[in-house]
Structure to design on (163 residues):
């Protein structure tokens, strides 16, 4: 009888987090918000200027016209959806997985453009005047690394939750 009472008392104790756990949680939230805001900004700019984004996609010269058209339709909405998921911290594993894939494809496309010597408007973080260069490609690689680390953490926390 006393064991049951002790068990109930233990379950009602408040959770206590160490300083390192609090820092990890804070960094995770800030990371999700930062990447989410970047994606929301980028996606909304592309939706409000769809023909400009379509021209940018065609400028990369790595897809057929039909594939480019589909990409120009899908990418902005995918960015907005991922941005909302990251900001709300919902479906973390799925959000970071698709974010990583989208960033990896973006890095691949830019590296192909740089190696081919084309001068193409970036379209990286919205519709701007920047052309594809090693600087904005490096920035996207950095965001990709952050996304992959976050994906790894989401995968680990998801694995623990399933057990």
């Amino acid at each position: 009888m006393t064991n049951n009472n002790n068990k109930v008392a233990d379950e009602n104790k408040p959770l206590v987090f160490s300083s390192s756990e609090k820092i990890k949680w804070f960094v995770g939230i800030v990371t999700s918000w930062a990447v989410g805001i970047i994606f929301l900004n980028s996606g909304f700019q592309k939706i409000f200027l769809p023909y400009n984004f379509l021209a940018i996609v065609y400028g990369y010269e790595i897809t057929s016209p039909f594939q480019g058209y589909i990409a120009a339709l899908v990418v902005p909405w995918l960015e907005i959806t991922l941005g909302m998921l990251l900001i709300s911290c919902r479906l973390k594993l799925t959000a970071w997985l698709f974010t990583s894939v989208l960033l990896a494809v973006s890095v691949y496309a830019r590296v192909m453009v740089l190696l081919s010597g084309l001068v193409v408007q970036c379209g990286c973080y919205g519709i701007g005047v920047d052309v594809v260069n090693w600087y904005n490609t490096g920035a996207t690689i950095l965001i990709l690394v952050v996304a992959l680390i976050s994906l790894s953490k989401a995968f680990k926390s998801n694995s623990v939750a399933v057990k």
The longest helix spans residues 19-48.
